[in-house]
Automatic annotation (TrEMBL):
The keyword Magnesium does not apply. Residues 434-509 form the AMP-binding enzyme C-terminal domain. Residues 43-386 form the AMP-dependent synthetase/ligase domain. GO terms for biological process: fatty acid metabolic process. SUPFAM superfamilies: Acetyl-CoA synthetase-like. It comes from the Bacteria. It holds the Pfam family AMP-binding_C. This is Acyl-CoA synthetase (AMP-forming)/AMP-acid ligase II. Belongs to the ATP-dependent AMP-binding enzyme family.
Length: 520
């Protein structure tokens, strides 16, 4: 990434403002010694702004950057002395959003161990599989998951919240140096259609990844940022990395509740919110705050943005939605600004600076504008492969996202869905997202999902699952007639099923396998 662009962006976002020379020198020294890992970012923030509030939990407890760093270092020393954690080990983290999770991630990577971020929605059986496949040495977990960890192998040492505090309190003094082997963060893929896979996240090697994001999303140094997206998910973890780099004050709640989130945005005067689309949708289900919080950015990612949601939200909270399309494997591919979303509410936007995007056919050839093809992405934060050793297809340095999409004549990307989600009905290809977006525009519909189910005549037929707003009703035939008016006949759902809520995982993605159980 070219230096003038980096300098200009960092200046524009307030990261190159003058400071006390000794603190600036200490800040740069921390980055030189520890790099741009989460540990390095926390250390540089503590060096530059030691007394600034780093984290506010939902209980109101606050930790400064220096206090957060001290607690993470004490935990690291105690994990090494009491649990024998060393470079190359893997430490599982089964925690919701709170400061203890951050401390444990930093503590593991300080020692050169890999931090495995475990989805809080996993069953006991799935958790046991993850522990075995990821070869966990230690599992740090919240107390609420005590019953779920009972069946883990005896060799996996467990650290609950009381043990976490005991380790921090009982740590012996000592010095910590950068490990010979860098600790990696391993994120588990969402696993909506199968068992989650571990994906190794790379460590940034400079300001490039940060600049790519904050050039397009106007986050500033020392903002107050609420991270509602789960930190165990790629998007929540990215929000944490960006927040540390900006020396932001981070507001965390263990569970998402729309009314509590709305109130926290006002109470803490948050300038930014990181969320997944279903959270934004549910914020609209509660009365808007008065006065409105000073939000400049509501950054969403993790699943498709339903049609019409962005304009509806911006009509209430202002033009603040930024939609990032990416994945655990490619980090980011494109970002849609509020102006993009006003123009085309379902767009994924354009690739940010330093990112290459290509729409290719099955033979690897570029397809014309407007034609659907496979989405390939290249940037400096492509994942390093699955922990199983499996990899994704690459072409000319670009990684296959597994998604299908198209780019219009204005250069905007539209994602049509997963390649393996495409429905073939009577020989015609149907993308569920197109039908879902149309159904979501019905005023009675709160959320919609469309899947393909077996059909003896057409091979597959479409089934639409609709969650309605309270007190609303719809007739299935009226739904079909509505779709028939706007789309081709093969896009009309033969089955229309009304549900109270769509089944979702902890990151807000619809669990299609649960919908298919409706058909036995």
């Amino acid at each position: 990434m070219d230096l003038p662009f980096v300098v200009a962006t960092l200046t524009r976002r307030g990261l190159l403002t003058p400071g006390r020379p000794i603190r600036v020198a200490s800040q740069l020294g921390a980055l030189r010694k520890w790099g741009w890992s989460l540990t390095g970012e926390l250390r540089q923030a503590a060096a530059r702004d030691p007394g600034r509030t780093a984290v506010i939990d939902e209980t109101g407890a606050e930790l400064t950057y220096q206090q957060l760093l001290d607690r993470a270092e004490r935990l690291a020393r105690a994990m090494r002395a009491a649990l024998g954690v060393q470079a190359g080990d893997r430490v599982g983290l089964l925690c919701r959003n709170h400061h203890g999770l951050i401390e444990a991630i930093v503590a593991a990577t300080v020692l050169g161990a890999d931090a495995v971020l475990v989805n809080t929605g996993l069953s006991a059986a799935q958790l046991a599989t993850v522990a075995e496949e990821q070869r966990l040495r230690v599992l740090v977990h919240d107390d609420e998951f005590a019953e779920r960890v009972v069946g883990l192998p005896a060799e996996v040492q467990r650290v609950d919240e009381r043990a976490h505090e005991d380790l921090v309190a009982g740590a012996l003094p000592g010095d910590l140096q950068p490990p010979e082997r860098d600790g990696r963060t391993i994120v588990l893929t969402s696993g909506t259609t199968g068992a989650p896979k571990g994906a190794r996240r790379p460590t940034p090697n400079g300001f490039g990844p940060l600049v790519s994001i904050i050039d397009r999303i106007p986050l500033h140094a020392r903002d107050t940022v609420m991270i509602a997206a789960p930190i165990f998910h790629t998007w929540g973890y990215a929000a944490l990395q960006v927040s540390f780099a900006l020396r932001a004050t981070i507001v965390l709640h263990r569970r998402f509740d729309p009314a509590a989130t709305r109130d926290a945005l006002v109470t803490h005067e948050c300038q930014a919110l990181f969320a997944v689309p279903v959270m934004v949708q549910r914020l609209l289900d509660v009365p808007p705050p008065d006065p409105r919080p000073p939000l400049k950015v509501v950054a969403v990612s993790g699943s498709a943005l339903p049609g019409g949601l962005a304009p509806r939200f911006m009509d209430v909270y202002g033009d603040v939605i930024y939609n990032l399309y990416g994945s655990t494997e490619v980090s980011w591919a494109s970002i849609a600004t509020p102006a993009d979303l006003r123009e085309a509410p379902t767009t994924a936007g354009r690739p940010p600076h330093g990112t290459r995007l290509a729409i290719l056919d099955d033979d690897g050839r570029p397809v014309p504008d407007g034609r659907v093809g496979r989405i390939f992405v290249g940037n400096e934060m492509l994942f390093e492969g699955y922990t199983s050793g499996a990899r994704r297809e690459t072409r000319d340095g670009l990684l296959d996202t597994g998604d299908l999409g198209r780019i219009n004549s204005d250069g905007l990307l539209f994602v049509d869905g997963r390649a393996d989600d495409m429905i073939v009905s009577g020989g015609e290809n149907v993308f569920p997202s197109e039908v879902e977006d149309l159904l979501a525009r019905l005023p009675q519909v709160r959320e919609a999902a469309v899947i393909g189910v077996p059909d003896p005549e057409y091979g597959q037929r479409l089934a639409a699952f609709l969650g309605l707003h309270p007190g609303e009703t719809l007739d299935p035939e009226a739904v079909r007639e509505y779709v028939r008016h706007y789309l081709a006949r093969f896009s009309v759902p033969r089955d229309v099923i009304f549900v109270k809520y769509l089944p979702r995982n902890a990151t807000g993605k619809v669990l299609t396998r649960e919908l298919r159980r409706y058909y036995g």
